[in-house]
Design brief:
The protein has a single domain, classed as Structural Genomics Hypothetical 15.5 Kd Protein In mrcA-pckA Intergenic Region, Chain A. With 182 residues, it is mainly beta. The chain contains two helices and nine strands, in the order βββαβββββαβ. The longest helix is centred in the first third of the chain and has 11 residues.
Length: 182
């Protein structure tokens, strides 16, 4: 396969009123024939989002918006392009654009198209069929800022089990549970 795919760096800038520095990020391989909706879904999965039922919007140079129009019930901002049919072929080398997931919590991202195209077979070892991350860095925050199962945002953090370490785990791996204890 030739070097025909785009390499798009996506950095998480802010979310839930917090700015991130250093910014966690992922680099995606994406065919020019992929849609912005496919890129949005790939970004959301790669950034650990599990509740995908939120509006999202790309903002291209010139303030052109790209979003799934049917999600807006006819209320999309004027001039917004449909993300399901708008292809990544609109993007140029070196172009920067923004992506916002969840227009309430405003998970904002800076996206940058690399100057050079890539071969997905070289970078990923396969043609994934949709945009896919092939490099990344940084700690990703939980979509709802939950720190443990059952976190409601007001409760105190649960205490670590009395046995300490990994003693509360089932003895499936070395160091877990009571395995190796006398």
């Amino acid at each position: 396969m030739a070097r025909t795919w785009l390499s798009i760096r996506v950095e998480l800038v802010a979310g839930q009123g917090e700015d991130f520095w250093p910014r966690p990020g992922r680099v995606f391989a994406a065919a020019r024939s992929h849609s912005f909706a496919q890129l949005a879904e790939s970004i959301d999965v790669a950034f650990g989002r599990w509740d995908m039922a939120h509006l999202h919007m790309f903002t291209l140079a010139g303030e052109t918006g790209v979003s799934p129009l049917e999600w807006w019930d006819g209320e999309a901002p004027e001039g917004t392009l449909d993300g399901r049919s708008t292809k990544l072929s609109r993007l140029a080398a070196g172009e920067q654009f923004a992506y916002v997931f969840d227009l309430g919590d405003n998970w904002t991202h800076l996206c940058t198209v690399a100057d050079e195209r890539i071969d997905p077979l070289t970078e990923l070892g396969m043609d994934p069929g949709r945009p896919a991350p092939y490099w990344g860095w940084g700690t990703l925050p939980d979509q709802y800022a939950r720190r443990w199962n059952g976190d409601d945002g007001e409760s105190r953090m649960p205490k670590r089990p009395a046995r300490g370490g990994l003693g509360d785990l089932p003895p499936l791996l070395p160091g877990w549970g009571d395995r190796g204890r006398g």
